[in-house]
Amino acid sequence: MIELKHASLLDILPPNLKRDETVRAAALSLDGQLRQLSEEIGRLTYYDRLDKLTEEEADELAWQFHVDFYEPGLPLEQKRELVRNAFRWHKRKGTPSAVEELVAALFGEGKVEEWFEYGGQPFRFRVITNNPEVTQERAREFYRAVESVKRLSARLERVILSQTEELPLYIGGVFHMGEKMTIRQVG
């Protein structure tokens, strides 16, 4: 079977037309344009190549898919991640897992704790992240991202920046075995 991108019009011409030099030249002159058109058709399917989207394509798809939190200034990899997950997040919008996935896509790791998990006020939650980039400068961006996917009845109470470091731990101990002697001076 001949693939469309490798096909030539000569392949489908009947034998009597293949012998006509004018028809043959016309068929060969169109082959380049047909190959170019075949390549462009392959680019129409965005879902097959989400990891290869250009900036412009990602911006256009984000608008088309109504990506809740999307900024044109984001890095290309984050844009692709937001577009890739748009449908999934729309289906699960308002759930803690949707908030966690959006936070992970934009800011690295994040975990949502509901009010009943930490003894807070009803309908509140907090986000725990270990990404040091979630600073005061990016606080508004972080807040807008969470607000775009959380359920409307829930309120973000606080963001906890958790940082863990590997530190060497040295433990020492002494074991003494012997008699106890008390000396008193009488006097």
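The record above closes out task 2.4. Task 2.5 opens with a second protein, given below.
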Amino acid sequence: MKSVFIAIRVSLLFMIVCGLIYPLATTGVAQVLFPKQAQGSLIESGGAVIGSELLAQNFESPKLFHPRGSAAKYDPTASSGSNTVVASDDYAAAMLEKIDALKIENPNLKDIPADLVTVSGSGFDPDLSPEGAKAQVPRISKETRIAEQQLNELVDRLTKARQLGIFGEPRVNVTELNIELLKQVKL
């Protein structure tokens, strides 16, 4: 019976330490050292929260940059990958459909960056490769009457380099790109 009481006390101690003290301490430290990230890296415009730097949003207007596809349909409560086998006929057919749709939407597109037709692993990747963003420039230029050079400069300005110069790939956040674009054009 003595060992049961010891087990209960140790369990209660670990529940308090691991379930209460540790989470409060790490949250407090994060709020002090990294307040923006601890709050979800929110993007605000005009005093209203319009998104997060960490989550993709679906932009369908032909005047805006489109993000990478989402297997979760951009629903943050439904994180999922497609789990489609790359070597399957279904995957090949889906890729051909996406390529055809992309070519209809962007008729001048010659080289198709992979991130414009594939989905991200989580379904929420907010970033595109600079090539993926620039592939959409002719369509956006035609729709908005903004010069292609100006749009390419916008992509270049908002492109983030590799982290520490070696990790990851250059990328551009589509939500931030569209916010800057909307400052230049009225939809």
